[in-house]
Design a protein that fits this description.
There is one protein chain. With 185 residues, this protein is an alpha+beta fold. The protein has one domain (13-180). The protein has helices at residues 13-64, 101-107; strands at 81-86, 96-98, 122-124, 127-130, 132-136, 145-152, 165-171, 174-180.
Length: 185
Amino acid sequence: MNWWAQKQKGFTIVELLIVIVVIAILAAISVVAYNGIQARSENTKTIQAVSQYIKAFHGYAAVNDTYPVETGYPCLGTVATCGQVSGATYCLGSGTASNNASFDGKVKTILTALPEPSVQKMNCGGVLASGAYYVKNDASVGKGAQVIYFLRGDQPCDKLSGVAWVTRMQLDDTTRCYAGLPTLP
C-alpha cells in the first residue's frame, strides 16, 4: 500500500485558519469588554469617594457651621495633583489642583481615612485630567462649596445624596461633573 493512499490524520489548512480566526475574534471581544469594565470600575471608585467626601463635608458643617475654607483647589484623596494633571490649556475650564494638608486635616476630623478617587488619566482636549477636587464658594465664605470630579467616557453625572445640584460637561473621553453642596444659612 502506498503511503499517500493511507488515510491521512490531522487538520487541513482551512480548518486551522478557521480556528485561528475564531480565536482572534474572541480575543478582540475580550479586550474591548475588559477595557469597558475597567473604566466603569474606576468611575465607580471616583463616585463612591466623592459621595463619602460629601457626607464628610456635611458632618464638618454640622460641627463648625461652615464647609472647609481653603485657598486653592484641594484634591480629594492623597494624590499630589488632580484636575488638570498635564497640558498647557484648561480642560473644560479646570485648573490644576493639588494636595492640601490643611484641608486633609479638616476632613480627618470627620473621617479617619481619606477616600481615594480613581487616578485614571483621561484625555480632555489634549490635556490629561484625573481625580476630584474641592472648590469653596468665595462669595459666601464657608457657606457654599462644590466638588468637581472626572469620569472616563460620556457619562451621566447622577445626583449624589446630599448635593443641591449637579451639572456636567463632556469633551473627548472625559466627563467633568460638578456637584454643588447646599448653601448653609
